[in-house]
Write a structure and sequence with these properties.
The chain is mainly beta and 183 residues long. It contains two helices and six strands; from the N terminus they run ββββαββα. It has a five-stranded mixed beta barrel with strand order 1-3-4-6-5.
């Protein structure tokens, strides 16, 4: 049986990060997902889907996202129930998010927030600032001219010494025989 939910949308508010009595982090948030069709007035309607995320991913999600962030959510649909203070049974259907992806850069997110009159966010205490070097900003193959280029004949690294990179495109074809394949 398959229970999989994949959502792409914008957060309707900042994630609410809390901790259980045992210390497990839990983030709750709502994702607005546009429908594929328009209504009679030609406007797109949206579905507002409640989500919950647990432990370290919840902390990361709360640190790096904010109201209006464009995110991708991968998880499963869960239904639960509880009794409220009036003694009525309440049923809740939500997506338990297992993975997430940030689908826009910081500059795009800031531009979106400015256009929609939202205040700036500091992106949490653990987020590296744009002036700090990230562990992903350096090229492991020693080409300091193109930090985010992964080999190949791109204009940024033409003539660069890619001898340490076994997958660099040096303009020569690679011969692979059936004996080289593991299957």
């Amino acid at each position: 049986m398959i229970n999989r939910a994949i959502l792409v949308g914008r957060l309707t508010r900042d994630p609410d990060l809390r901790y259980t009595a045992s210390g497990a982090a839990v983030a709750t948030f709502t994702v607005a997902v546009n429908r594929q069709f328009t209504n009679q007035q030609g406007e797109r309607e949206a579905d507002f889907i409640n989500c919950v995320m647990w432990r370290k991913p919840a902390e990361n999600f709360a640190n790096f996202t904010h109201k209006g962030s464009l995110v991708g959510i991968d998880g499963r649909i869960q239904t639960r129930s509880y009794e409220n203070q009036q003694g009525t049974r309440v049923y809740v259907t939500e997506v338990v998010a297992e993975n997430f992806s940030l689908l826009e850069s910081r500059t795009e997110a800031d531009r979106y927030r400015e256009q929609h009159g939202m205040t700036q966010n500091n992106y949490g205490n653990n987020a590296p600032s744009q002036n700090q070097a990230s562990q992903f900003d350096s090229n492991p193959f020693g080409d300091s001219q193109s930090n985010n280029s992964f080999g190949g004949n791109t204009p940024a690294n033409n003539g660069a010494d890619n001898s340490a990179d076994p997958f660099a495109d040096n303009g020569q074809s690679i011969d692979i025989s059936d004996d080289d394949l593991p299957f």
